[in-house]
Amino acid sequence: MIYLLLSILASTFIFIIFKLFDRFKINTLQAIVFNYVTACFCGFITSKNPLNVDDIVQSQWFFGAVALGFLFIAIFNVMAITSQRNGLSVASVATKMSVIIPVIFGIYMYQESTGFQKMLGILLALFAVYFVSVKEHATFHFKSNLLFPIILFLGSGIIDTSIKFIESTYIQDGGIPLFSATIFFFAACFGIGILMFKIIGKNFKFNPQSILGGLALGIVNYASIYYLLKALHHETLESSTIFTINNVAIVMFTSLIGLALFKETLSFKNWIGVGLAIISILLVTLA
Question: How many structural domains is the chain composed of?
Answer without folding.
Answer: 1
